[in-house]
Structures are given as C-alpha cells and as structure tokens.
Amino acid sequence: MKKRWIILGITVLTILGLGIKFYMDEEKLNEEMRKVVYSEETKQVFEKRLTNLDAKAFTKAGIIQSYEINKESIERSPMGGINVTLIINKDLEWYITYTLGKYNGKLDGGGASISKELTKKLNLKGS
Q1: Partners of 76 in beta bridges
Q2: Where are the transmembrane segments (predicted)?
C-alpha cells in the first residue's frame, strides 16, 4: 500500500514538473516574440511596408497616419515566423496582419492580410 502512494506521489510530481517546464518554455518563446515585434528592425519593416501601401504614409496628405501593434495578436505562425496585427490610425476596422520571418537572413513582413475597410480606403485591388 505504501509503495502505491510513493509511486502515485512521484507520478504527480513528474506531471506537475513537466507542466511547469512547458509553461516556462512557452513564456520564454512569447517574450522572444515580443522582443522581435517591438525591435527597431521590425519597426523599419513595418514602416517600409506601410509606405509601399500608401506612398504618403505618415504625412498630412497620407491615409495612413499612424499604427500601433495589437499586443494580443502576437503569436507563432503555424508555417513559421510570427503573426502580428497593426491597427492603423487607432481605427479597429483598419488593420493589417503580417507574418514576420527571416528571409535570406533579413527580417521581413512576408505575407499580409489587409482589412476590407482599409483596402477600400487605399483603393487597392480586391476592394
């Protein structure tokens, strides 16, 4: 009987230990993703991509005046890289979701998904 309790105790402690390890590994990965998303290199990628969509971005004549990173949107992409959504001009209906990744050793905002409302405003194809 005593042996059974010892085995049960060891099993519970092992499961608990593995759970804590997986949680800590996930938190470390999330912190690393946040560091990448908020880095100066990523800021340059975002601003380049946004000025490609709107040549007058960040000027009085441009449609895109500002952007902010949606913290809750930062997640690992199933295809590799990091998915992140930018809110444009503080309007929740104007957003762009990028998949950040390393391509040929450089950080780039590979795929992008632009909200229908922003697509219309920018007069992009598909509106």
Answers
A1: 82
A2: 6-24
* Helical ranges in 1-127 per DSSP H: 2-37, 40-53, 116-121
Q: In this structure, how many other beta carbons lie within 10 angstroms of the beta carbon of residue 20? A: 10
Cβ atoms < 10 Å from Cβ of 32: 11
- At residue 106 the predicted structure's pLDDT band, cuts being 50, 70 and 90, is confident
To 10 degrees, the CA torsion angle through 40, 41, 42, 46? 100
Find tokens 């809750």 and name the residue: 72
Token pair 């809110």 is found at 87
Residue type for position 30: N
Which one-letter amino acid corresponds to residue 70? N
Tokens of 51: 């000025």
> What's the rounded Cα separation, in Å, for the pair 107 and 43?
11
The pTM of the full predicted model, rounded to 2 decimals, is 0.76
